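Margin note: ligand = ISE.
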Amino acid sequence: MTKILRVAVIGAGRMGADHIQRLNTRIHGAEVAAVVDVDLTRAQAAIEGIPGAIALADAEEALNNGDVNAVLIATPGFLHEDILLKAIAKDIPILCEKPLTPDAGSSWKIVEAEQKLGRKRIQVGFMRRFDAEYAALGKIIRDSELGELLMLHHQHRNPTTPAGFTNEMLINDSVVHEFDAIRYFTGEEITSVQVRLGKATRNAPAGQHDPQHVLIETASGVLADVEIYVNAKFGYEVATQASFEDGIVSIGADTGPYTRSNGRWGGEVTPGFEERFGAAYDAEIQSWVDAALRDEIGGPTAWDGYATAACCEAGVEAQKNGEKVAVKLNAKPALYR
Ligand code: ISE
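Resulting structure:
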């Protein structure tokens, strides 16, 4: 059995760099063995101060390196498929940032490759499941503490979007988290997605319609809605209100220190997802490492990645036609049941 994970981190951008620091300073049982980035200078900068780590420009070279026994994929989603297939062939633990891949067809190929391997090797980076409040709400639902869950109302607001953030990415990059959260909360598959485009902000870049209202239904009829608003300016907010038969539960309110001073009252708005979900990312990666050392996975599976990719595909179609679009899923393979 592996004693320590020697991780190759593929992609040293915003999320990759964050995971490298996390692995290097806070996570037990794992070390950064290699950092890969097409921009070699960026990879070199990312390994500074990490003893024994090497910088490379090619993912395959990292996977073939004898010092590497696990991989964390943090490249943009459209590059995941190729790296995933190569990592599955190596039969090593894989943490793949969301989305698994950008569409259901390519995600299904990953599910098939893992099935062929015969065991689960991929954990998908849906870190909201590791947030303390998400977990608490999940438990209230599972234990039926407030009767049946009836509706979920999500607010997903980002201050601004990076260059190249397309209209589809509001669904594929952002609402993908709510698709996973709704599946996690209800334990059910999502059956349909509708997107309504209303009045748009003047602060959105050309080509992006922002905000959007996404309406979702699950197998038992739970209705969920998401306000996705990615140029909201004021700061970062990811919040949910759940309506039950016997009560209402809200999570995600900014409840930092409340200050009264100089004739003013208030607090600080969370600036971004690193701050909002820092602890959840730590818990997610620690869970992956602990499970990988037992040859298991410690979080959402490739099936979860595939099912959310199918939701995204329906969501992108719904953005275009305004209709309620059915989510089509293949039968769930035995490996994930
Ligand atoms: C980003 O990629 C994330 O994963 C954030 O959690 C999400 O809030 C944001 O909308 C995405 O672009």
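The mean pLDDT is 97.
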